[in-house]
Design a protein that fits this description.
about 325 residues, alpha/beta, Rossmann fold, 2 domains, six-stranded mixed sheet, five-stranded parallel sheet, 14 helices, binds coenzyme A
């Protein structure tokens, strides 16, 4: 049923942890198909938000088994009051009234995020029918950064010629400052390590170590400097993280080019993690690879949050959703 070998591997890795993942978009057939695959594979405990009768009907029509899946209609949930109070307590200082909390907790993305905050789910996957902002905003407001003040960002896993690459940030931060870009690089290093891989991080620009000039280059060079300083912290010292920049994409990925443009760099020619200078570059870059370069793309997944909440592309196929659910379950493993 799952064709991609990479996807099968993710599902196999998630299975032993059997994390609970909430899917707020029970009205979407792709989400239900993905829920069925994950449930059949016993890769995670699935909670779907939506109408029981309608979902049961869809499962029956497809001869799928609903056993193992929990369906919750937020409007009828016995937890609604508890979640409303939780939301109000978290947001009253930001000006949210009790009435607003009542209305907001009923929105399925907020309800799902509150389930994660309350510990009733380990992670949430949404976005098949919602904009990135509508999925991400509740997470930023309720789940918040794992490290105070650190920028929350996103990463993608790109599979090209059987090789795995990590891209960031292609979804959240529109025009990050040098500090924010450094935060993005450090969070991505942590995400890469969650997959048991040693990060080799290239801070991308149109210049390789001073070959080009401009404000954009200065920003990335400064970000590389800050990120290197952040990597001096005790928590990273024992880890095998390499980071360098600024450099061009070909310098990062091609050994021959790197020999000429960055002979001194340990990352040049062998990067497995690419940090883009802004959202235009990152978003365009990954979509080009996906559409013209035949790459599989998983994500964007959020990183730097206290608990995993992930956004789907609205063009996602059911298999993509399966991948994001499996990755969310893996991110929930402490
Ligand atoms: C992610 C995004 C929706 C957040 O913007 P927003 O909703 O206007 O957020 P706000 O500025 O109102 O901030 C909401 C909260 O999140 C926090 N926040 C916003 N961005 C953050 C970030 N990157 N990291 C950490 N916290 C962040 C704010 O501090 C604020 O917290 P508070 O309300 O507790 O004080 C916005 O950055 C965005 O639209 N990004 C681009 C998304 C996009 O179009 N992607 C391309 C398609 S994939």
């Amino acid at each position: 049923m799952i064709e991609s070998q990479y996807l099968k591997g993710l599902v196999d890795k998630a299975r032993p942890h059997y994390k609970t993942i909430v899917l707020p978009e029970g009205e979407d057939p792709r989400v239900l198909r993905a829920a069925n695959i994950i449930n059949k594979e016993k890769a995670a405990k699935i909670i779907v938000l939506g109408d029981y009768k309608e979902i049961k009907h869809y499962f029956d029509d497809n001869n799928w088994n609903l056993d193992g899946i929990t369906i919750i209609k937020p409007e009828e949930s016995e937890k609604l009051e508890e979640y409303t109070k939780l939301l109000y307590d978290l947001r009253k200082e930001k000006g949210m009234t009790e009435e607003q909390a009542k209305q907001t907790a009923l929105k399925y993305n907020y309800f799902g995020t509150l389930m994660v905050k309350a510990g009733d789910a380990d992670g949430m996957v949404s976005g098949a029918n919602h904009s990135t902002a509508d999925t991400v905003r509740p997470a930023l407001q309720i789940i918040k950064s794992a490290k105070k003040g650190r920028t929350v960002s996103s990463f993608l896993i790109m599979i090209s010629g059987g090789k795995q690459y990590f891209f960031s940030d292609c979804a959240i931060n529109i025009n990050p400052t040098s500090q924010e870009l450094a935060d993005i690089a450090i969070s991505t290093a942590e995400s890469v390590m969650q997959f048991g891989i040693d990060p080799r991080i290239a801070m991308l620009s149109y210049s390789s170590f001073g070959s080009g000039v401009g404000e954009g280059v200065d920003k990335v060079r400064e970000a590389a400097k800050i990120a290197k300083e952040m990597l001096e912290a005790d928590e990273f010292k024992s880890k095998n993280i390499l980071l360098d920049g600024e450099m061009q994409a070909d310098t990062a990925l091609d050994v021959v080019v790197a020999t000429k443009k960055a002979p001194q760099s340990k990352v040049g020619g062998r990067a497995n993690t690419l940090i883009f200078p802004d959202l235009n570059a990152g978003n365009i870059g990954y979509k080009l690879l996906q559409r013209l370069g035949n790459c599989e793309a998983y994500g964007p997944m959020l990183q730097g949050l206290n608990a995993p909440i992930n956004d789907l592309s609205r063009g996602a196929f059911a298999e993509d959703i399966v991948g994001v659910i499996a990755i969310t379950a893996l991110q929930a493993v402490k």
